[in-house]
# Entry
Amino acid sequence: MTKTTSKPADRVIELRRRLDDANYRYHVLDEPDIPDVEYDRMLRELEAIEAEHPELADPNSPTARVGNAPSGKFASVRHAVPMLSLANAFSDGEIQEFVARISKETGDQEPAFSVEPKLDGLAISLRYEHGVFVRGATRGDGATGEDVSANLRTVRTVPLKLRGKAPPVLEVRGEIYMPKAAFERYNDWAREHGEKTLANPRNGAAGSLRQLDARITAQRPLAFYAYALGETDGAKLPSTHSQTLAWLRELGFPVSPEVDVARGAGGLLEYFNRIGERRNALPYDIDGVVYKLDRYDQQRAMGFVSRAPRWALAHKYPAQEEATTVESIEVNVGRTGAVTPWVLMTPVHVGGVTVTRATLHNADQIARLDVRVGDTVIVRRAGDVIPEVVRVIEERRPLDKRGKPLHPPYQLPTQCPVCGSAVEREEGEVVARCTGGLYCAAQRVQALFHFASRRAMDIDGLGERFITALVEFDYVHSVADLYRLTLDDFVAMKRRADEREGSTPETVKAGKVATKWAENLIAAIDASRNTTLERVLYALGIRDVGESTAKTLARHFGALDPLMTADEATLTTVPDVGPIVAARIAHFFAEPHNREVIAALRANGVHWPEGAPQRSSEGPLSGQTVVLTGGLEAMSRDEAGAKLEALGAKVSGSVSKKTSFVVAGEAAGSKLVKAQELGVEIWDEARLLAFLAENGQ
Ligand code: IVH
# Structure
């Protein structure tokens, strides 16, 4: 927001124009364009100027009414008892003053308050005559609202008939809101069906309730909580507000389970903190808590000022949404190569902290939001959740001289900003990934960890702690560098890691350096040089190439070079390799950085026997594909697999329609279920053992 230093009269005109505009968008169009906090700030600034300059007063100023008059789409309803608003407080000091004022004027040293969540929805008034719902209206400007009875009837938590003995006239006030989960569900559905998504649950509730077609409202998951009375006739009311809420519950109105009674300023602040801690876990959005003096006689003694009672106060939490501008759009590369876009923003205070970065999640989200550099955006930070951009205020997009947007729609980079390898996004996937898996610094720790693991290159003793230190202190850039490490490198690396963690052993401080562990590591790395093609293929960490696929590929190609040059079509002819995996393999080997790492591995002495392509051996199971799942008693799965292969079977890791049979051992899980679903034949261990014995295995 830009503050001008111009004359107060000009500023007042400007603020009124902007507030009126915001009101119109919010109340009439249901398309708010500024966050509430900004609206509140402008309103407060206007109030302050008007208070200082009475000559600028205007009966039509936005400060003189809370909302806009009804839009004319619905019938008007005059509220017999006006719907008031609440004074706001943001600090502990204001709460103490509020309670002190009440204590002084009522003579009650520790007055009791009904304490309630301040629901972030839409205030409504429901009218019942002789226990039957007759009309429901929005708040409108507090004096006159809109008749939205037809829509309210569709809200399941609004009772249409009251339980027990209801008075001849009863108006109940409360909040229509959209539960958070319902909001998320609705937006998921809307995205899937190409419908407009809702900006937040509050706008969702407001927009849904003001639909002219009640059938649309009926599809929106709205809910209601009661928190006050309007006009009543013939009712014998309790003497406190908390008793009224209990009575309303008996009549069938939902009341928030968080309502409570608290005493004195200490009790109020304790409630504020207690609810604040649970704010994000509550199933609905709240923007604060409300304190209401509980005894009606005390309420009457306190009375009202202008539109708000002096016996009640809204204590607000820091706003979770704020507007700011996008300075640049960056991307982050994760340990698995996932490329995540985020925005760098002009610092803004939101949810109690200053934020400068917010996530955009993925390319889909960018396309949906159409975020561009220079845009004014709404950022949201709820609790510990990573701040996110929820929407763009398109009206504020910077334009060039011809009125065209200054910046084009944002495109994800096609090359990894960390390593320069190609960034690719597979069809049907929301996440784009860097393809330089072996080379990319962002993926190094992950790549090394997998490379060294037991079923890959099996480098004993090279665990996550050492790998992280090797990468962070820049000893290794790719898995090939492991084979160039010296004893001195390891000792120096460990000394730095110990120093950083403050865990330098006393012996080292005394000048003695134990190197046995480092010698062992060097030996383990050396031993891993002598390996097999299937282990190397698995160790490379190509997405979706697990041990079983690595084995199939090794057999099928016999050597690495023909595999590296195979195109996708050739790869799909390999049993068990579908088009997706074929594409992943081809892309991996097409990336020059990955080829360099493989060349470096060979140059550093990593070797494996190579031979002609092997076709599976002939035998009683030739042409059959078998899947092993669950634990076997008589032998390991690997052993059983080897025996089946010796009989001509191809052992696969996943069940499909092409699977000939599944051997299900102890505690078999999803593969067994899938086999059952597909009607694939299932063998137990006994049948397997009998078959192997019969065939000489
Ligand atoms: S009582 C005389 N109780 O806050 C008091 N209001 O600024 C009338 N609100 O328009 C309101 N939760 O939309 C009350 N537990 C609660 C509330 C609540 C949310 C909203 C309501 C009202 C606004 C007042």
